[in-house]
Amino acid sequence: MVTGPKAVVIGASGGVGAALVRLLTARGDEVLALSRASTPPVDLADEATIAAAAAAAGTDLALVIDATGFLHNGHFRPEKSWRELSTEHLAYSYLVNAVGPALLMKHFLPRLARGTRAVFATLSARVGSIEDNRAGGWYSYRASKAALNQLVRTAAVELARTNREAVCFALHPGTVATPLSAPFAKTGLEVREPDEAAALLLGVLDRVTATASGRLLDYRGEVIPF
């Protein structure tokens, strides 16, 4: 079996993903940066590319970070009312925010190192918390991130049976100054630059233990209720 890099970042072309790659590389970690434009490429809508990328990453992985996600594009915007719901928007949000990450877990969790702490983290969002939802709106994004949280919880239960020291959890990065959040940043909302946000996330990733497996943590390491 081929020993892989110490860290893998999927979604490495995005604001948070690219910042994570920079910081990991700067501190001397060996990093495999994956995206739709990388070699090999990763397309969340194409499981074959995910399987090929996982094979290229090898085994004994210490850290896998899924920094992918979808909130809006030129065609879809977060829904303010149920009147704006559409099959197409819901399906695309679930594909990118839940189905894709689930397939990443399928192919990368078995490649985590054994007998030592190893971490798989996927970026989720506080707005995916059902208990914390008091504002409404953003139907597709909220629901797809809630689905992601449940997938993480379920995968963590299975992972613990075969790799007890491994951690599989969801991570809320806060509001980051990227194209994804820029149109929705409210006045007075705390917005961090990608490198600052990535540094906070790495702090959590460096100290997280198996007790956090299956949970949703924020960038301070605090548990967010599902």
Word description of this protein:
The protein has 226 residues and is α/β, with parallel strands linked by helices. Helix content is 37%, strand content 14%. The strands form 2 sheets. It has a 6-stranded parallel sheet, sandwiched between helices. Strand 3 (63-66), helix 3 (87-108) and strand 4 form a beta-alpha-beta unit. Helix 1 (15-26) crosses helix 5 (194-207), helix 2 packs parallel to helix 3 and helix 3 runs parallel beside helix 4 (139-162). The mean pLDDT is 93.
Shape: globular
Biggest sheet overview:
6 strands, parallel
First-residue to last-residue Cα separation: 37 Å
CATH architecture: 3-Layer(aba) Sandwich
User: What is the string of helix and strand elements?
Assistant: EHEHEHEHEEEHE
Overall strand count: 8
**If you average the pLDDT, what whole number results?**
93
Question: In percent terms, what proportion of residues is strand?
Answer: 5-15%
Structural class: alpha/beta
Number of continuous helical runs: 5
CATH class term: Alpha Beta
CATH domain fold name: Rossmann fold
Model regions low in confidence, pLDDT < 50 over at least 5 residues: none
Number of domains: 1
CATH superfamily: NAD(P)-binding Rossmann-like Domain
Give the spatial strand order of the biggest sheet: 2-1-3-4-5-8
| Helix coverage percent | 25-40%
Using only C-alpha atoms, the radius of gyration works out to 17 Å
